[in-house]
Amino acid sequence: MSGMSEKLSTPRRIADDHVAQVAALDPMIATRLGLSPGDGRQPDLSPQGFEALAELARRTLSALDAVERNAEKDGVVFEDVERNCARLLRERLTAELALHEAGDHFRELRNVNSPLHKVRGIFTLMPTDTDEDWATVAGRLRNLPGALDGYRTTLAEGIAGGLLCAPRQARAVIGQLAAWTGRDNGGTSWFATFVAGGPEGLRPELDAAADRATTAVAGFRDWLRDTYLPAADGTPDAVGRERYLRSARWANGAGVDPAEAYAWAWEEFHRTVAEMRTEAGRILPGGGVRETMDHLNRHGHTVVGEENIRAWLQQITDEAIDALDGTHFDISGPLRRVETRIAPPGSSGAPYYTGPSLDFSRPGRAYLPTLGQQSFPTWELVSTWYHEGVPGHHLQTARWTAAADRLSRYQITLGAVSANKEGWALYAERLMDELGFLTDPARRLGYLDKQMLRIIRVIIDIGMHLELTIPADSGFHPGERWTPGLATAFMAAHHGSDTARRTSEIDRYLGWPGQAIGYKLGERAWLQGREASRRRLGAGFDLRTWHMKALTQGSLGLADLADDLASL
């Protein structure tokens, strides 16, 4: 945006131009949005690449300042949709620059959603229907080593400047990269597996490119192990108050009051513990919550095999779409298409969702990490798939995408606030409970267990990073200060996860400070907004109407979400 042109005369036009320019700089964004399908580049993860994105953010903010000054001078009043876009754009870019200017990108190494994960994740978003598509895949595989070289330079500057992640994060990523290559256990690399479905005519080219990518990943893993990990020795797991608040603001779209959120989460904890005990008693009279969960894992409904659990979860989503469409939501056309997939090896331990392309040629997809598991108790998966699919992430993201005629592209893509999206998905789980979809005691205990996980996240995410004291009435190490070890034990006592999942979760909270609290804080905002609208409208409140209005608002941070929802 070298000098603002006449056409960039509204916040929405500035925001959409920003998306276009980010997509031009970052092929991961372009691929995610379904733009530039023949582009074989990898993201530029060098310091210069990060600075280019930051400079673009600065220019966009300057353009927004100029437009708003001119509008005020000329007496122009923007419509609500324009004001909402301007408000979001300013908040998001300001928060983004705060992270950049603090140098956080020099130490952004963690087990989920780090820059490193772009270099593999980009392939799962690419079209693979034609020979031309596969030729682009081959080119992108050949460019992967260069992306890793740039990222190594960024992390090396972090080492030189004393900006490093904790050893725990480096070790987690080293383990993931080992899984990507498959070499430690004599297996096949993820890249070789990915290209196996390509056309025979391109087989030599694809195989050679996959081997080149695998070798580069192995070399990067070795550098992390031999150079980065020793340099990171002594870096604490906890990031401290200043960095925590900066990161939490980015994830939540608002300043966070850690003391208030921590105290509220403990109230939610005690309430949910009581509810879980009641539900467990319906399943195994006389048994405790943990005993009941163990009973369900051994004797409850179980699906065996990755393909079978994928198909079973797809059925859960399809049934939800059929039941909710026309009653509590309008789900038509491409919104009805969402795929369940098994996550590739070396992913984080938690299920996740990727949204559709802007033209819906690539559908939304919900991924289940299996972590080597072949037997899947279903009691804890049903509400999770409501969270990831319908009415959770997919319905919100697809509705935003379908509303592109009235929202800026920024509001439905780059401007998405994590706490808004995760809050909606957690609200979606609660909604399905309210609507009677979780009356089976086992499935309902699974829902409550997922609610408990999100409550635990608030408690230990804030507690670990700010090294807070555990309350006297907690029933768990009262008066002690949180450590990763205590957080792991607390999760083991109150959530039905296995050891691998707990380790992945704790790694995630420590490496991505402030993000995990957005689930419950976001759900609280959604519930507060709905209740305020219900009180305002009285008998005129209609849940289906409210849902559809709420899902066409586009992204909002938590500073604005509840108030906007209350006005619908």
From TrEMBL:
User: Cross-referenced InterPro entries, in alphabetical order?
Assistant: DUF885
PANTHER family referenced in this protein's UniProt entry, alphabetically? DUF885 DOMAIN-CONTAINING PROTEIN (PTHR33361:SF2), GLR0591 PROTEIN (PTHR33361)
- Any idea what this protein is called? DUF885 domain-containing protein
Q: What is the protein's species of origin? A: Streptomyces filipinensis
